[in-house]
Amino acid sequence: MLFDLAILFFSALFAGLLVFLVPKISSLAFKLTLVFAGAYLFSITIIHLLPEIFTASKHPSTIGFYILLGFFVQIILAQLTSGVEHGHIHEHSPDGHTHSFSAATLLIALCFHAFMEGALLAHPSGHVHQHDTESLLLGIVLHKMPAAFALMSVLRSHFSSTRKAVVYLIIFAFASPLGSMVSSQFHDLSLISDDAFLIIYALVCGNFLHISTTIFFESSPEHRFHFKRLLVSLAGAFVAVIAEFLM
């Protein structure tokens, strides 16, 4: 448990701080990294999360409703974050000035999403996630790292103080571990039922489906065939299958 929490925290922190070590990253390289993460996230949702929550639920149609709700909730969150959670880096407007946005709103929206992701790593007895969660943990990490890098890129251009940007990054890095700890504690103290956990999982599944498909669509806005992107997508799906069934 502590090891998973440490991975969640330090992976996001390290990815965000990479902005200072790699001030300019190739647009193609970053997009391909996002495509790999998106393919892995989509695949792990399809082969891991969805089968488990539908199998565990006594009312699959109700679970389907919450997955759909999570999808549309993510659309709302994306409006607040400008897509930072799936790797968007909006530093400057066409006139050369930084975008006007609320850094606090951005942080709150991202932390809410990250908190919900962390809650997936709880282990409610008798329901989902009875086997190892390494594949799911890897999916969350692969998603959080580009998000942390994009967040720090935006904050670095928004704040004149590097220290303030790093403080925001640290808060974001804590969100997923906190979600995991609170979720586990609530279940251990019977403050939340297993059925309520299933609703949380369904909502986050909807989030994941929106984020992963958005990454695919936005990586090729002109809808052209790109062989490299196809290979990277297949690699992400392959790693997800390996992590799920062979690890």
Strand content: under 5%
How many individual β-strands?
A: 0
Residue share in helix: over 70%
Determine the mean pLDDT.
81
User: How do the helices and strands follow one another from N- to C-terminus?
Assistant: HHHHHHHH
Amino- and carboxy-terminal Cα gap: 18 Å
Question: Rg from C-alpha positions?
Answer: 18 Å
Q: Report the biggest beta sheet as strand number plus sense, adding barrel if it closes.
A: none
Global outline = globular
Strand pairing plus helix content: what structural class? mainly alpha
Query: If helices are DSSP runs of H or I spanning 4 or more residues, what is the number of helices?
Result: 8
**Low-confidence runs of at least 5 consecutive residues:** 91-100, 125-131
3D architecture notes:
With 247 residues, the protein is an all-alpha fold. It has one domain. The chain is built from eight helices and no strands. The chain is globular. The two termini are 18 Å apart. About 7% of the residues have low confidence.
Short synopsis of the structure:
With 247 residues, the protein is an all-alpha fold.
